[in-house]
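Researcher: We're teaching a course module on how sequence relates to structure. For the next exercise, students receive a sequence and then see the predicted structure as tokens, so they can try to spot secondary structure elements on their own. Here is the exercise chain.
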Amino acid sequence: MKAEPFEVKVPEADLDDLRFRLANTRWADDLGNRDWRYGVEREWLADMLAYWCTDYDWCVHERTINRLANFRVVIDGVPLHVVHVRSPNPGAVPLLLLHGWPWTFMDFQALIDPLSDPGSHRGRVLDSFDVIIPSLPGFGFSTPLTQTGLAVPRLAELFATLMTAVLGYQRYAVGGGDWGAVISLQIAHAHPQQVIGAFATIPFYPGLDLAAITDEQYASDEQWMLARKAETRDLISSHFTVQSLDPQTLAYALVDSPAGTAAWLWERRRAWSDCDGDLLSAYTRDFLCTLASIYWLTRTIGTSLRIYWESYRFDPFRRLHDRTPAVEVPAGFAIHPKEVMLVPRSVAAAGTNLQRWSLMPRGGHFGFAEQPGALVEEFRTFFRPLRPQMLPGTIFATPD
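Model: And here is the predicted structure for the students to work with:
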């Protein structure tokens, strides 16, 4: 298996088709919805779609993407797009960053240069990383999705193979958010002799039983988590239900309509970000349009939904061994105040070799895109003492 250089080149005809569809959106009536109580408010969406149609320039962002080191490889019949940015500095730690849904690899864009070349970004050269960011199968440029059955354990093996057999790293670090957190912790669980540490924004580790977590397990200084869970209960159920039960039915509507694709994606960004209902306070218009464009132009909004159906029939938290803790390598978590997937520290400590637990001052579920500078510092700090463990044969110490 060999990763081949890849360049994004969207045909002009596809961009013309996108603009035509946006200009001819068939609008649903929207009565009494100024506060978004029924979902995305029409006036806001119309303004955003007008920008996407007439002001947004995909080609500018395509050039930004192509300035990254993009590759494509097929592993076990699964096509993968991978951004692989090597540090100019010796001794860089390979860092596999994994995104979730509805994310793309571009959620990590602002972290790439500071992590790979910290000396040019107010950091220490000794904190350098080689940064590896794949697109999940069926997402964006990891197309076409040619297989079913790509649940979390299979994805973990796919990315472990990418790091070792394709890219040639013997040892590496992992991290991510949303599904990327689940997959990265599964890799750490399955391959502790390869992974030096895992850092994620949600502690969804193998063996976790979300239904068994009680209110009493939240410490006195974690009561805000219970309030946030109650606040977000209705914000995380709609997509989860349909994408776990019958994603293909929704796929036909979304793949046919860029307005529908954008509404589905942008509503989640608004609901799960630290933005107080003003999405444009957290992201630029161009960021949001690039997000929607990647899903739309690659026709992958439908296949991206499949990870829910596959994983929740297989059990996304399935353990592959009974050693304790389930994640033996050092683990760290950055917990954002507007996160929608919250687990008390005591539970995270029971299932992982917990070495760092950072309560972030700002940010939501998409913390990597919302607060990239803070996450860069978290990665630098967490992995700094683990860098000597890049040497083969290291035995990891677990907490008493």
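Model: If you want an answer key for the exercise: Residues 393-400 have pLDDT under 50 and may be disordered. The CA atoms of residues 310 and 380 lie 34 Å apart.
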